[in-house]
Amino acid sequence: MSWINISQIIVSVLLVISILLQNRGSGLSAAFGGDFGGYHTKRGFENFLFYSSITLSVIFVVLAVLNNYYS
Q: Residue 47 CA to chain centroid, in angstroms?
């Protein structure tokens, strides 16, 4: 395995963890209109998870393109 494959596996695991830790609107009640729907600002760890998910997804896409290019 090359370093691209190993780093893509690590980034994908971190991305899944960061997405699963975000629990805003979780559950089936939010899907059927049971959510409060009020204005909510992200603070602290929730803000960190939001931006880390975006960053990890960009890194994942870049690694996927590099993996396709070098294969």
A: 12
The pTM assigned to this predicted structure is: 0.75
Sign of the dihedral defined by the CA atoms of residues 14, 58, 26, 40, in that order:
positive
Q: Residue 64 has which token pair? A: 């996927």
Rounded CA separation 71/5 (Å)? 11
pLDDT digits (tens, 9 = 90+) for 21-65: 987 655 555 555 555 556 677 788 889 999 999 999 999 999 999
Closest by Cα among 6, 21, 17, 8 to 64: 8
Query: Can you give the three-state secondary structure of the chain, one letter per residue?
Result: CCHHHHHHHHHHHHHHHHHHCCCCCCCHHHHCCCCCCCCCCCCCHHHHHHHHHHHHHHHHHHHHHHHHHHC
